[in-house]
Structures are given as structure tokens and as C-alpha cells.
Amino acid sequence: MNAEIDISGVVLKTERLILREFKEDDLDDFYEYAKVDGVGQMAGWNPHENKEKSMMILKDFIEEKKTFALQYNNKVIGSLGIEKDNHLTELTDLIGRELGFVLSKDYWGQGIMKEAVDKVIDYCFYTLDLDYLSCGHFLENNQSRRVQEKCGFKRIKKVIFTTRMGIKKEGYISIIFNPKKNINISTYFKEQI
């Protein structure tokens, strides 16, 4: 079951990042990384053609109150959403969400996304008291796969995603359970893949 999420007023800090709500002033930074070829496609959306498109999505982020802006050196370089989990129907007796993230290509390979995901995992488990978090990636998205593995997610099933562009793509769903809850993965998933 999906937990209710509202990150209004929440600010999380790591060694290099501030994770906070998006605001309309973030438009230029958001558009700067969202327009780059190869960034959005890894998450299932096309590069933004113009700032108007970015502003529409930015307003959704603000209104939905579930997506953190990743701020690094006073610049927004990515997003991390605590999304609804629509893939793990086996977990009807547990409360959780799915993480989705995007990072500016300029910052790939520096451990920044792992740092952000670790912080949000802590927030979801120790502040919100969720039972689990899931995360998905397309087959070819090795960067996302590596972040998930490094953060402790265990791959549990292959799925077909429908992207925001309406394209069907194969990928995997991974899961991490709240360590305070002593939930056994084999209760829900007989084997990991």
C-alpha cells in the first residue's frame, strides 16, 4: 500500500547536497539538465524542448509535494521523487513507495546520486516509518542499477514499464526493507534475480 507523502518544509542535508522542495526559481537549473539528450530517456521521458515544458513539470513537482530538488553548490542538478509504487502488488500488507531519480549528466559518476538516495532512504525509514522502498530501472540503465545496488536494493522481478512517451521497455524492480522492521524478503519473493 502506498504511504501518503508530503515533503512540504522538509530539508535534508548530506555532505555535498541539500535536498529540498522544488520552487519556481529552479526553472533555469531544471531546464538546463532536463533538455540534455540522454538524461530523461534513462527515466522514460524525452528531453525538454523548451522552458515552458520544464515549467509545467516543475509546477507538478511543487504541487504534488513528493519530489526533492537536489541542490549542489547553490544549483539544482537533479530530482528524487518518492513516487507511488504500482509494481509490487504482492505487498498489500506493507506500507511503501517507489523512488525515482534523475541527475544532470555533468555530475554522473561522482557518487552524488547514491548520497542523495541514501539520505532519502533514511528519511523514509526513520522519519516516515515506511516498511519498504522499491526502485526500478530499464535494462540498459546501468547507472541506476549500480546506484540501487550500492544503496542496498535487491533486484526481485523483471517487469515491462510503460514510459511517459508510451513506449514499453523491459526492466527490473528492486526493493529494500526498513531494517527496524525485520521483514524477511523471502516471505514475499521466493528468489532474487
Along the chain, the helix and strand elements come as EEHHEEEHEHEE
From the spread of the alpha carbons, the general shape counts as: globular
- Oligomerization category of the chains in this entry: single chain
Summed up, the helix count is 4
Taking pLDDT < 50 over at least 5 consecutive residues as the criterion, the unreliable ranges are none
Average pLDDT, to the nearest integer? Answer: 92
Task: Please give the number of β-strands.
Answer: 8
**Share in β-strands:** 25-35%
Amino- and carboxy-terminal Cα gap: 23 Å
Please compute the radius of gyration using only Cα atoms.
Answer: 16 Å
Give your account of this protein's structure.
- The protein has 193 residues and is α+β, with helices and mostly antiparallel strands.
- Helices cover 24% and strands 29% of the residues.
- It has 4 helices and 8 strands, in the order ββααβββαβαββ.
- Strands 1-2-3-4-5-6-8-7 form an 8-stranded mixed sheet, with helices on both faces.
- Helix 1 (27-34) crosses helix 2.
- The mean pLDDT is 92.
Which characteristics define this entry?
alpha+beta; eight-stranded mixed sheet; 4 helices; 29% strand
Compose a concise summary of this entry.
The protein has helices spanning 27-34, 51-64, 112-127, 142-150; strands at residues 12-13, 17-21, 67-72, 75-83, 96-103, 132-138, 154-162, 168-177.
